[in-house]
Write a structure and sequence with these properties.
Blueprint lengths: L1 H12 L7 E6 L2 E7 L5 H13 L5 E7 L3 E8 L25 E4 L12 E4 L17 E7 L1 H7 L4 E4 L4 E5 L5 E8 L1
Antiparallel strand pairs: 1-2, 1-10, 2-7, 3-4, 4-6, 5-6, 5-7, 8-9
Function: PPIases accelerate the folding of proteins. It catalyzes the cis-trans isomerization of proline imidic peptide bonds in oligopeptides.
Enzyme class: isomerase
Keywords: Isomerase, Rotamase, Signal
């Protein structure tokens, strides 16, 4: 009986695997993203690679559309494109929806073109999900703390940078000052 109790205590004392969380520090404040590595392993690992190599630091949220989304991770404050790893496979059929506060991979019209850019949804944007044969945009996590910082981004006036062909660029740069994994 004593061995059974000791074994039972050891089982309950084992650490439970927690989801990876990433702390993002911007010039507007901090927010925390919880990754869904189970349902979006390729997108999550891709995101982690950019976090760990430090190349998200100094990038901006270059496209902010209130009521829709805030996109970042690809450009510095001078709108110079940051180098990227090879594109990843689209995981938009992972049963995760583009709901309020979720983070997803940005891409071109090529479904398998996502590299380093991501966006955070301001509202439920299910029209971005995969439907039938139409590929969607792969959700890979959710902002679990500090969503008010994301909301602050939408309060900054935006402009068009014609020389870059970019719309909805915040007039005040929203810079990722630091980004790190805080929990695994």
């Amino acid at each position: 009986m004593r061995r059974f109790l000791v074994a039972l205590l050891v089982c309950f004392a084992l650490p439970v695997s927690a989801a990876t969380q990433v702390l993002v520090t911007t010039n507007l404040g901090d927010f925390t993203i919880q990754l869904d590595e189970k349902n979006a392993p390729v997108s999550s690992q891709n995101f982690i690679r950019y976090v760990e190599d430090g190349s998200y630091e100094g990038t901006i949220f270059h496209r902010v559309i209130p009521g829709f989304m805030a996109q970042g991770g690809g450009f510095d404050k001078d709108l110079k494109r940051r180098p990227s790893y090879a594109p990843i496979k689209n995981e938009s059929t992972n049963n995760l929806s583009n709901e309020r506060a979720t983070i997803a991979m940005a891409r071109t019209s090529d479904p398998d073109s996502a590299t380093r850019q991501f966006y955070i949804n301001y509202q439920n944007n299910a029209f971005l999900d995969a439907r039938g044969n139409r590929p969607g945009y792969a959700v890979f996590g959710k902002v679990v703390k500090g969503f008010s910082v994301i909301e602050k981004m939408a309060e900054i006036p935006t402009t068009t940078v014609r020389s870059m062909g970019m719309k909805d660029v915040p007039q005040q740069p929203i810079v990722i000052k630091a980004i790190k994994i805080i929990k695994e």
